[in-house]
Amino acid sequence: MADIKLVDVCIRDGNQSIWSMTGLGTHQIMQIAPVMERVGFKAIDFTSSTHMAVAVRYHRDDPWQRIRLMHAACPSTPLQFISTGFRFISWETADAEFMRLVYRKLMQHGIGRFVLLDPMHDMDALLAVAKIVKEEGDAQNMAALTYTISDVHDDAFYAACAARIASSPHFDCVYLKDPSGLLTPDRARTLIPAVQKELKGLPLELHSHCTIGLSQFNYMVGADLGIDALHVAVGPLANGSSLPPAIQTIANLREHGHSVDVDEQALARMTQYFTDLATAEGLPFGQPQQYDASFLRHQLAGGVMTTTRRQLAELNQEHKFAAVIEEVERVRAELGSPIMVTPFPQVVCTQAFFNVIDAERYATVPDQVIRYVLGRFGRPTASVDPNVLDRILSMPRTKEIQTEPLTMTLKDTRKKFPASMSDEEFLLRAVMPADQVDAMIANRQPVRSYNPEVAPVLKLLRELKQRPAVSHFVVDKPDFRLELKSVGCGEARTASVEK
Questions:
Q1: Is the bond preceding 119 in cis, omega lying within 30 degrees of 0?
Q2: CA nearest 11: which of 71, 84, 96?
Q3: Where are the alpha helices (DSSP H) in 234-360?
Q4: Which of 97, 108, 362, 428 has its CA 20 to 30 A from that of 292?
Q5: CA distance readout (Å), 192 to 80, 205, 493
Q6: 165 in Cβ contact with 126 (< 8 Å)
Q7: What pLDDT does 406 receive?
Q8: Shortest CA distance to 104 belongs to which of 126, 136, 81, 79?
Q9: Which residues neighbour 338 within 8 Å (Cβ) at sequence distance 6 or greater?
Q10: Local structure of residue 245 (DSSP, 8 states)
């Protein structure tokens, strides 16, 4: 029986799957960082370019500072960055020199492990990115084999990809990534050995979401077959559309005769922290999932489902969620059945949304769908439906996009910004709205501490600050009394807390 390692996904994938990626600010992450370092994870799934953009857009946090602080707090646990190759934040591709700068800066700030994923399984592109990373630093490279169900993606397909990866000197490990939770134990028993046979000793990890309730079974199959590491979450950030819970996974592994070397006291403390944080902030808890065969059709990852629901709610269209998900299956088939991993879920879901709210399907076609059809993201797995293809190619906007440069270049983009601008600021401004980056810079300050126990009180005080007409406020509960009073003509306030 084997010693199985764990990779934690709370901060990036768990946060994305359960809390739409917006649930954690830098101050909340840093409060638990030293404890996460003590657990003994093989790595921490920490961020992605999309996750960095969310830090800027929703929290006004500096994502470079976040990486730097986390690395200082977790010096012996590699921080993981998932990348779709020649792309950073923007959906447009960037040239090799632009991405070389991205990977160099990420490593300088503390990223120690890259998950390299090509949504089309373009092995040439994947090997090219791995080479750039190794030329710019000493981080580990982990290749992603993204699981999906189609006539094309059989065991032989994944084995052939594994053979190409093993032929490169630039990869340190590989993982089977099951973002939609579609893998079954029966398929795992044939797929894992087929991939292992071609890896020539490279470690293989397993990442399977709980979306239809099969991931714990897959994990036990994987462990019995010699998987090196399993990806897990804790507390409210596990289950649901996220990854399996660490504590239950450890218990199951030991029942199967495997060993797991972690600091269980630190793991319990980490679990309690995220539980207290979710309770204090009113964030949802991931729940164990029942088998839902509909996911085998639309194949959307849990994080995409959560994000789609949130975006519909922001537009007061949440009641159309079921219709959009149904339309996703139809659009995906029409677009050649792309693997539903970034950026393709966003491409498909956006088109499905417009098809549902417009009077006619494909009356509105977003630019990214046009670019996909034009091959800007690579070659579709299957042919695009001829009727859909003809409609999109005949649109005036398509002809405009065909004249655009194929990729964003470092040389040309640099000319748009002052030479004195730091590389970190340049990389954000090159791909994000200026006002969002401006707001982040204006908000720069030392990272404040965070305590879930007092978070509701602090939120109350912040809201009261916005209501100067309230001159006297009292919260009186058993063993707790908070009294807030204005002094004089409201020029000052005093607060007293009793326990």
A1: no
A2: 71
A3: 246-255, 264-281, 295-298, 302-314, 321-334, 344-357
A4: 362
A5: 23, 10, 64
A6: yes
A7: 76
A8: 136
A9: 119, 120, 332, 344, 347, 348, 372, 380, 381
A10: B
- pLDDT score for 477: 73
Asked if 349 and 328 count as a contact pair (C-beta separation under 8 A), the reply is: yes
The answer to whether residue 435 scores a pLDDT higher than 90 is yes
Both tokens assigned to 268: 């319990």
Kindly state the tokens that stand for 481. Answer: 């009394």
Q: Which domains does the chain have, with CATH numbers?
A: 5-281 (3.20.20.70), 295-401 (1.10.472.90), 455-498 (no CATH)
Half-sphere exposure of 450 toward its Cβ, with a 13 Å CA cutoff? 21
Q: What is the pTM of this model?
A: 0.85
pLDDT of residue 119: 83
Residue with tokens 């090799």: 96
Tens digit of each residue's pLDDT (9 = 90 or more) over 43-58: 999 999 999 999 999 9
* Residues 106-165: tens digit of each pLDDT: 999 999 999 999 988 889 999 999 999 999 999 999 999 999 988 789 999 999 999 999
Of 246, 352, 256, 345, the closest CA to residue 303 belongs to 345
Residues contacting residue 176 through CB under 8 Å, at least 6 positions apart: 145, 147, 158, 183, 191, 192, 195, 204, 205, 206, 207, 208
For residue 33, the model assigns a pLDDT of 98
Statement: residue 90 has pLDDT above 90: no
How far apart (Å, rounded) are the C-alpha atoms in residues 144 and 150? 18
Average pLDDT over residues 224-231: 98
Cβ neighbours of residue 473 closer than 8 Å, sequence gap 6 or more: 464, 482, 483, 484
Cβ neighbours for 416, distance < 8 A, ≥ 6 positions apart: 430
Q: How far apart are CA 227 and CA 229, in angstroms?
A: 6
Q: Using an 8 Å Cβ cutoff, are 63 and 71 in contact? A: no
pLDDT tens digits, 165-211: 999 999 999 999 999 899 999 999 999 999 999 999 999 999 999 99
- pLDDT band at residue 362 using 50, 70 and 90 as cut-offs: very high
